[in-house]
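Entry for the shared binder. Reason: the reviewer on the internal report wants the predicted structure included alongside the sequence.
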Amino acid sequence: MEMWKNIVNYIGCDAEYDEARIVLFGAPYDSTTSFRPGTRFAGREIRNDSYGLEIYSPYQDLELPEDVVYDCGDLELAIGSSEQVLDQIEDTARRILKDDKLPFMIGGEHLVTLGAVRAAAEKYPDMHIIHFDAHTDLREDYLGVKLSHACVIRRCWEILGDGRIHQFGIRSGEKSEFDWARSGHTDFHPFRLDGLEETIQEIGDAPVYFTVDLDVMDPSYFPGTGTPEPGGVDFLTAMEGVTKVCRSVNLIGCDVNELCPPCDPTGASTAVACKIIREMLIAAANREK
């Protein structure tokens, strides 16, 4: 039975819900954004822009199978309440997971990850998180608010504990966040994606939730984000990294977030986000065969 009915799908995501193994959904929320808002528009723009892509990836020499991904569109979220929004996302991810499908969420700001992680950890209490980002997101609170995109990984740590969050590309945050991560609370790989292969091998067959903040890329490649941070990885490095994770780990859920279309009226950043998502979907869909 179908959960939702969507009219404009991400290209190639044309499966029916019952036959799909991956369920794509949008979480258009940006109410805790601390700098430039607008990530709530990402899902809509990504779907529209995806029609400029092919379903074939020459990087992987693979196509996105037509019977694997169901796109249910954007959730209708209670924009004024972070708690209620997270509950809605958690309920959505829980239903997808209960049906033994993989939830693939498009944010929105990074706080939306917490709702999906809550549902995933309920089903997979031994899960790990692989986290690509420019920012630590490890604050105890941001201006007194604990449910903030600046605190999302700290809230995830409260669920999983030490040693099960693996952070890559980090190059911005308070000194206390860097010190806290380096003290062993997270597996911390700042600045680049170095050590990703070794981390994947160490995780082994444990369940993995993969969260990608697109500002892991340098703003010269990806300017359309709410909090751009110079010094990031280039597009090809990011694409190779996300593909490696999606095809190599026991992936049980993932998200891509922090595209802010109004911050890049050229559309270049939306095109980058579309291609990152395509490569992730193709890698995950073909790995499950």
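Summary line for the report: DSSP finds eight helices and ten strands in the chain.
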